[in-house]
Predict the 3D structure of the following.
Amino acid sequence: MAIKIRLARGGSKKRPFYRIVAADTRMARDGRFIEKLGTYNPLLPKDSEERVVMDLDRVKHWLGHGAQTTERVSRMLEAAGVVEKKERLSPQKMKPGKKAQERAEEKAAKAAAAAEATEQAKAAPAEEAPAEEASEEAAG
């Protein structure tokens, strides 16, 4: 029997509340579970102590018996210091797609052209000012 430590949703519509449970992988998400290990209330502020409440001894017990954790629960356990942190995404997956890269290059080119135009605009009046003074001196 494969055991997972996962979240089981409770609460009403648009008011989520989760139980952290050890359950057989074949059971439904909100269905039968073996043991309730804690709770997770995403509506509370992130710095609240009641946001995530777990019985860490029982979690360690189940991990010792070969239970696997879901992604979200493993992040909670990492924050609690029960499990060591691990890399999640490969660098290849974090790169933007081809179209997004093209848009970024176009945006960078436009920004460079705009910066060049402002530099030329600043340089042009400085060059014209001595020419105007010279013409005034010649006329005067």
In short: Helices lie at 56-64, 71-80, 91-94, 98-139.
